[in-house]
Amino acid sequence: MTHPPVLAKPVALELHSPPTFWRCEPSWSWVSPPQQDHLLWCVLDGIGRLELNGSTRELGPGVCAVFAPGDAPTASHDPRRRLLVFGMHFAVDPQGVVPATRWAEVQDRVLLGALARSSDTAYRRGDPLGRRQAELCLEQLLGLIWDAAHSPQPSATDTAVQEVAQAIRQDPSRDWSVTEMAAQAVLSRAQFTRRFVAQHGTSPAQYLIQARVERAHQLLTETAMTVTQVAAVLGYTDVAYFSRQYKFRTGSSPSQTR
């Protein structure tokens, strides 16, 4: 799905209600009048159903909605598995942060819950900084929902490959092999390489070299380590080979960078 253009100015948010958690009563149902402002509505527990403009969404943990002014949603739930919802009313400028579908499922439920709790706790301190922190949490929640609505959900295999790539970036000095990377993703070497290239546009080996060069640049500019020391900690026994790889990817030699 194509994303709309990047917003030309920063998002400005203003809370119109405190961040709030509510466990819906067994007999609860919701028939909302047209919304006067924006409403964030995140399901943290329970199951139910939400309807808006003729579309229906089954509710469960991680399903979130961002309603716009004029929206009139209706909802119900299973009284044996009551909904636990977090949300708040707010105004936003510019308007283009609300997904057209209004709802999406956030996969990272730990982060979702942490942002909800942080927003609630900060706001209830009652000071200007707490209110600002609550607004920042709201902005992050809107970003999570936007990503979930506009990005295809990764498969378990794609997630495993991405985790390997993240591990490489975090520890490029490790003595990685493509066979080991594939094993971590529970894939054959050939399958892993194909998936990796599809995600990152380069082979695992080249990705590792780039990660090492980026780490080398950081060490050369932010520490007192010599070029020889940097090469050694990143697994290069041949300083000249390291220097050639570094210059090829940065346009400068390690000694020039340092």
What would your notes on this structure say?
The protein is α+β, with helices and mostly antiparallel strands. The protein contains 9 helices and 10 strands. The protein has helices spanning 109-123, 128-150, 156-170, 178-184, 189-200, 204-222, 227-233, 239-250, 254-257, and strands at residues 12-15, 20-23, 29-31, 38-45, 48-52, 55-59, 63-67, 74-77, 84-93, 103-105. The strands form 2 sheets. Strands 1, 2, 4, 7, 9 and 10 form a 6-stranded antiparallel β-sheet that branches. A 4-stranded antiparallel β-sheet has the order 3-8-5-6, with no helix packed on it. A hairpin with a 2-residue loop joins strand 5 and strand 6. The longest helix is centred in the middle third of the chain and has 23 residues, at 128-150. The radius of gyration is 24 Å and the shape is elongated.
Order of helices and strands: EEEEEEEEEEHHHHHHHHH
Instruction: Tell me the number of helical segments per DSSP (H or I, 4 or more residues long).
Output: 9
How far apart are the first and last residues' alpha carbons, in Å?
A: 44 Å
Enumerate the spans where pLDDT stays under 50 for 5 or more consecutive residues: 1-8
Could you describe the largest sheet, including whether it forms a barrel?
6 strands, antiparallel
- Average predicted local confidence, pLDDT: 91
Computed CA radius of gyration, to the nearest angstrom: 24 Å
Q: Helix/strand/pairing class, anyone?
A: alpha+beta
Tell me the β content.
15-25%
* General shape: elongated
Number of strands: 10
> In percent, how helical is the residue content?
40-55%
